[in-house]
Amino acid sequence: MTIEDVKVVELPRFLDARGNLSFVEQLNHIPFEIERTYWIYDVPGGEARGGHAYKRNQEFIVALSGSFDVVIDDGNKKKVYTLNRSYYGLYVPSGLWREINNFSTNSLALEFGSTLYDRSDYVDNYDEFIKLKGNGEI
Ligand code: TYD
Prior knowledge:
- With 138 residues, the chain is mostly beta strands.
- It has one helix at residues 126-134; strands at 7-10, 13-14, 21-22, 36-40, 49-54, 59-65, 68-73, 78-83, 88-92, 97-101, 108-113, 122-123.
- The protein is globular and about 55 Å long.
- The mean pLDDT is 97.
């Protein structure tokens, strides 16, 4: 997997004077079956989360509120995706180093995953990630 496999997905929007509505569907806007949903909230300014890669888990990230940056690194190239609208999602395949930072106050990050939580799926060390990437193991 490389940076080119990361996709910004525009989600449906129903604009309404009573308030807008958006939604996501698995195997449609999200290109995998969802096994897990979690959210990150109450992040103090300046904090960063999730400096790691997943061996198997794919994810889809939505900034439900506020904004933050998702930094993707494929071992070769690095790209920053700023999420600041609730009607865009970022698809991140497995095998990429990713960090989320630059959280705005009261931001809310919603994440859908393709696998259940499994600590052994994480690669937490960047040098290890580069090694696995070089060997084609991730
Ligand atoms: P972690 O993935 O390490 O957070 P981040 O990479 O964003 O810093 O998760 C933090 C803690 O939450 C960790 O102790 C495990 C727990 N956790 C679950 O139990 N289930 C989950 O689905 C996730 C994402 C985390």
